[in-house]
Amino acid sequence: MTRWLLPGFLGVGVLATLLLIVGPALYAVSLSFYDMPSLTADPVWVGFAKYAQVLASAAFWNALWNGIVYAGLAIVLQVVLGIGFALLLNQNFIGRSLLRGLAFLPYLLPTVVAVLVFKWMVDGSLGIVTILMDDWGLPPIYWFETETASMVSVIMISVWLWTPFVTTTFLAGLQTVPGQLYEAARVDGAGPIRQFFHVTLPSLRPILTVIILLRGVWMFNKFDVVWLATGGGPLGATEHLPVLSYREAFALYDIGSGAAIATLSFFVLMVAVAIYFRVFPMEQGK
Amino acid sequence: MAEVSLRKLRKTYGPVVAVEGVDLEIAKGELIVLLGPSGCGKSTTLRMVAGLETISDGKLHIGGRDVTALEPKDRDIAMVFQNYALYPHKTIRGNMSFGLKMRGTDTAEITKRVDAAAEMLDITHLLDRKPGQLSGGQMQRVALGRALVRDPAVFLLDEPLSNLDAKLRSRMREEIALLQRRIGKAMLYVTHDQTEAMTLADRIVIMRDGRVQQIGSPLEVYDRPANAFVAGFIGSPEMNLIDADLADGRLVLGEGVSLPAPSGLTRREGRVTVGMRPEAIAPAGEGLPFTIRGIEQLGSQTLFIGELAGRRLRVMTGRRDDVALGSGMRIAVPEAAIHLFDRESGERLTTGR
């Protein structure tokens, strides 16, 4: 009985992974080698033709660049703000536990709710932000109408939604730093800023490495915020690889191109992660 | 002129008084040990001197300056923490240099001082390692070294040896004593280990419930404990403390068992506590009846645990008699070995000597 227990559990896991992750992924990759003008059409083998077509298109490079800008800025802001809030929430003040709980709330909100609420708030005629700005005599901001503004908007929504993840993780990490290290630093003459750079940051480096990696991967693959907020517009200003892949496959019914973009996106991310591990090794050599 | 002077130092947390009116003068080159059970306020006192706890009331002077309200870095102190508190991501050299770097000392001077301290502590070969690669004893040396390079007016050590095993502890104890004599600086050392206090201290400050019980050299507090608490805390094995009644110049311990009261008493009668050190009691041909209940062989000495007039008593002797449990013997207590305390207040009742 027990002889088969371990292989049994393992087998279920392996089977589920193969069936639900590896299988579909391989299938998606295989689709990129076919021309398939609709979901019901018979696929025609075209080799790397779809890749050549995608790599030659300006839309792909635009989407790749947009993805880097979106993910890059969103991560930097999330990490900087997240650490800042974590440090604030680590101070002693009345109502700290309440605020710590509240700080996590945005993370629990479904993306669609956050995006729709944001869109209502900045709505051109009814939005509270628009009305207030008008009352104060400020010029209107075209949140989703100009290219720069729409990129800023999707980044803002993303930062608002996922900074709590960084805050909470970092705050948890802060509890593990021995208090005596700060006391030693005080005796050594380090003020709050030097304490942060000489005690806090080095102690939490492993946590920070993981946070940035996770958030980076998630942001690069994030589909829903952009799709719901701008649909990639205006004029492709916020279109990144996930949106482009979706548009090619399910709006233009070029399944092969969509699959090729997704596969390329996967390789880009893989290379980025490999470089990241090189620069910031997970295990510090002792 | 005292290097460090604590004047009526007091620490309160809301209504709770943690330290009450500590007065202490530490001379240059003097090693003072703050001794007491956990929660007695010794660590809080040390941390007030360090500047890690604010001083609720009283004054603190270091090197003739009033430092009561100053930050730790401005007090001319260095501290050795119980868990060493070495920066785990810095090399040993980085750890030892950090304090000087923060003060803007120039690089050549830092290198010189770190090298000198490392040599003194025999840790030169460890300078490029990280704390995680070091043993407890080595980390302890580095922590000492970090304090040493700063060349402060006073060294503060918070139970520095409590994380080491017994053998290493006694060796580091000797080394700290040697080091302190060599550098000739004032040192304030906190411990709950009375052996550590006895062997290291120039003077011991014994604390209890936030109050100083007695300040004196190791032999002073051993020979003339100011109260029953100090008597019980200093000395190993512990002093026997037995309730007795003082009447007609005799100490009545129980039915038909009594001792002549020592001379120089501040009172003639009343309820008292008699203190007798186990090593001051000797088996004798005649004397008080003592029933043996247990024997602990310590090699050079034998500790008899038993009863005197129904009270637990411990007797330490150099003899190695093979005595059966439950058997009786006679013990003699020299008058000079009797300490007498008031049973209510615990205060010492004998004068002179």
What would you give as the CATH superfamily of the largest domain in chain B? P-loop containing nucleotide triphosphate hydrolases
Radius of gyration of chain A: 23 Å
**Whole-number total of structural domains of chain A:** 1
Q: What are the low-pLDDT stretches of chain A, counting only 5+ consecutive residues below 50?
A: none
Corresponding CATH superfamily of chain A:
MetI-like
Under the CATH scheme, the architecture of the largest domain in chain B is 3-Layer(aba) Sandwich
Which regions of chain B are unreliable across 5 or more consecutive residues at pLDDT < 50?
none
Task: Supply the number of helical segments of chain A.
Answer: 13
User: What is the CA–CA distance across the termini of chain B?
Assistant: 30 Å
Count every beta strand of chain A, where a strand is a DSSP E run of 2 or more residues.
Answer: 2
Under the CATH scheme, which architecture of chain A would be assigned?
A: Orthogonal Bundle
Strand order of the largest sheet of chain A: 1-2
Number of strands of chain B: 19
What name does the CATH topology of chain A carry?
A: MetI-like fold
Give the mean pLDDT of chain B. Answer: 89
Strand proportion of chain A, as a percent range, falls in: under 5%
* Helix content bin of chain B: 10-25%
Keywords (chain A): Cell membrane, Membrane, Sugar transport, Transmembrane, Transmembrane helix, Transport
Family (chain A): Belongs to the binding-protein-dependent transport system permease family.
Transmembrane segments (chain A): 68-89, 101-121, 196-218, 255-277
Membrane topology (chain A): Multi-pass membrane protein
